[in-house]
């Protein structure tokens, strides 16, 4: 029983055996034309040369289509498209002649090229079906080769009829075919690797193009690049090959008029050069820019977390626009979740990259409306991150404001794992396909195994040239519409009867529904053809496959007979199982695999039957494949794919290998070279150049291979630790990432301490400078490089200090004047003196400057005591031995133990470890803030009490205005996220990704952006990016007022008083009568 199906045209893989490719095609569809006064597609892209209106055409009911037709009233038709044509392009077309023609011609012109066909009509046209309704006609297929002296030209094809009588000619099926060169050949004489006349890379030698250098990859029909394109990551047979990875997301920057993608990106501002102007600009290509200095962009990508299939690494393609050159020693860093992973930069040697490769560079030039020299860079890398949502950011490091850059687009793919794969454990090889999918030769999974060149074996779908390890196509023909000017000489017409070859005696092909078929309508009804194929390589068998096509009225007694070599002829007919096409035609699939080792292969095909006719009862074949199953390399004769009976003289079993089991532990098998190749130097064992199984010492195994850890760099085939201050580095002297939690920032390849901190040997974290120092080399005020902006501060050498007569006040953060009684002090109160002014008749007792013996305090002035004793003037008495107080005029000659004479008075000896007289404490040192100074209780300013019971350090009092102990900041309030909060210290909003001393400089967190127009900068929700965060209630990515969401808040449209936000419907109206 026939199987009725809808026929599907499959896209075939690119191989070198397909010699020609279609470059242009016109008038090849059934299409009803319409008249237009100006050029349009409504008349098949053809116009009248004189008026630019639609070319003349006729329209038919059977089949329902229109034909561009030349007549005496409309003798010409011009194609208004002018593509590029090349010398030796092959053109084929069908001409349908009607009415009387007497040696008149149809002329085809293309630029300076011209081709004429002279036609004489028969007395009576024999054909009335197969063209237009019942119109009598004769069809002729023309084919010719373009001769263009200059090599190529942009031109429009023109048809002109010289028939001035009633003769008409209709034009159909115009195809322009071009020779398909080997992928490394820019021009050629044939499709093979040794038929090149010029190369995409290098210069041909003996008609062969050289391969790329070992560190580069060959892009088909383009040349050598540093990495394969992200959609063609598999390097095989010397070329980057297309691989069915999944493009999980593509983020293209456009103006908001065309896309809301721009709303999903946010700016990172440079605090020193705040610029809020970057937006979607179009300098040759759209990009988010111009970004200058240390500004950047970021976007939250969440599609990876919802991708259901497997990945092996994540492919990342970044396209940036450079506006003028990157300044020397500057560049752009790329980060994943705020962690550095790669960069592009410029040094004295030019543009460099780290952890990524440049796949494409395109120089646009300087736009007339801008002064920038614009260059597009495409960067590709593969990163090892889990399938979670992540934040991508790009941050510039420019020192010159005349240059900038822009983010154009980002592509994220499934890496080295194909679509429909459930589990990838190594690159380019799926271990488990999803249910309903099949394993394929390149390690991918395919949804069906129904291409014309495929067969299914269990869960594996193989191609004809994959039946053995060394299979190779000899023939791949009649696969689509491509032409072949040499086809005629490949066939021999053995015999014929009845009507055949109506399109021309040398025309063995026709066009049937997107296919150029051998035979077919107007060509093959009762005839036998033969073809002899030459096979050079030693082989043991061949596979031959093709589709037989029967016309819609092919009779039951008609037959299709094919014979391979001298084997028994095989007879087919519509009585056999077949498939039906949309037009009533039928087809059968022929597959034959035979043992064969001769240098020629002869096949004959015969369309047989007395009732066959060439209009509706024709024969044809298409999807013609021959796969030769070769012997092993270096084998001259074999019985199968693994049994060689005669090796050639160059075979060396010590060098030539055929499987991984023949390789040593530090080698992997390379099928292309038939060799065991040494694993990468970082690998101990491996299965391919990409897949290490174990690593050399110091290296770490990952999906990327054997690599150094994030805080290591590679040198002399080993991983070495980065300097302790670097989170990532390129060498021992070149850091590329610093951690703000270590109080460091990147500057000229060094992780320097941020202002206010100093480095400590063997400690990655910078420590806080003294509060007097803006920059410093140590913890004290004597280690300052520069001073903080403290009122009245002064710098003497490396010391930042308050001037003499002043002391630093924590509460006001100023240098304030000492008490009038003090010469120098540690606080401004009367009991905060360090030294006294002797000219004011004062001396230091404990922490106070009191009047010297013989003086007393009168209106803050030390006044001479009277000679006569006055009991009311206690200050005029002085202490002498035996703890007695005597008048100041009396001489004291000795003191008790623990005292000493000072200015004629007994004062306790501070530092003798005895607490005597007015002394409160004794610690035998002169250190401030250690509980005892000058034998008086003296504590840091933040201590609430200071006495014998005090234990230092005093507890930090958050809110007292004094930064002490582990406190990082003090703002005197309990407001969260204002830069300083409780015991946390310096604190920014949770969305802040770069917090320095309580100030947020970056909100590279999904859904947030930083507002630099308020002080301090704050993270705010980014409405329109599709993420609902913070105070947002909804996200619809538009500005409509009628869909229930406006400015990311639930919103009833105007006139509606209540809404159902789950269905975006109005429940009640605000105005009566509605």
UniProtKB/TrEMBL annotation:
One Pfam short name: DUF4215
InterPro entries: EGF, Furin_repeat, Growth_fac_rcpt_cys_sf, Myxo_disulph_rpt
Region forming the signal peptide: 1-18
Gene3D superfamilies: Hormone Receptor, Insulin-like Growth Factor Receptor 1, Chain A, domain 2 (2.10.220.10)
CDD domains for this protein: FU
Record's keyword terms, sorted: Disulfide bond, Repeat, Signal
Residue span(s) of domain EGF-like: 416-446, 725-767, 775-816, 824-863, 875-907
PANTHER family: CHROMOSOME UNDETERMINED SCAFFOLD_176, WHOLE GENOME SHOTGUN SEQUENCE (PTHR38934:SF6), HYPHALLY REGULATED CELL WALL PROTEIN 1 (PTHR38934)
Protein name: EGF-like domain-containing protein
UniProt source species: Paramecium tetraurelia
